[in-house]
UniProtKB/TrEMBL annotation:
This is TfoX/Sxy family protein. It holds the Pfam family TfoX_N. The lineage of its organism: Bacteria, Pseudomonadati, Pseudomonadota, Alphaproteobacteria, Hyphomicrobiales. Residues 108-131 are annotated as: Disordered. Gene3D superfamilies: YgaC/TfoX-N like chaperone (3.30.1460.30). Residues 9-101 form the TfoX N-terminal domain.
């Protein structure tokens, strides 16, 4: 799926930015990645609040084989085929994905602040301190 097609699917949510990654594309709105494209399929960000909606639609999680041969799944679920042809359905699902991405970002920010407050260093900070 090319960038123009991805832009068209998500037109209702406003300006999206598309970045190449891992042989596919990451789809961003502002600073959050809310969708990814891999092998021609679009996957939307889910969390505990939204995953059941996608499960109910017959969706499935994005999965890949890790270096150790194990199957790994991510918190992105396949966008139903019907949404690719229905801008209104695509907009609703994209908004669910954006909300999940914003919640994940907020949780990560809170976790980082708590770690900093406790005086613990993140792996990145440790690497910077030793180098």
């Amino acid at each position: 799926m090319d960038s123009e097609t991805i832009q068209d699917v998500f037109r209702a949510v406003g300006l999206v930015r598309i970045r190449k990654m891992f042989g596919g594309h990451g789809v961003y709105h502002g600073e959050v990645m809310f969708a990814l494209e891999s092998e021609g399929e679009l996957y939307l960000k889910v969390d505990g609040e939204t995953v059941d909606r996608f499960r109910h639609l017959g969706s499935r999680p994005f999965a890949y084989t890790g270096r150790d041969g194990r199957t790994m799944t991510m918190s992105y679920w396949l966008m139903p085929e019907s949404a690719l042809d229905d801008p209104d359905e695509a907009a609703v699902l994209a908004r669910f994905a954006l909300e999940a991405a914003w919640r994940a970002k907020a949780a990560g920010t809170k976790k980082a602040a708590a770690t900093k407050k406790r005086g613990k260093s993140s792996p990145r900070q440790k690497a910077e301190q030793s180098g």
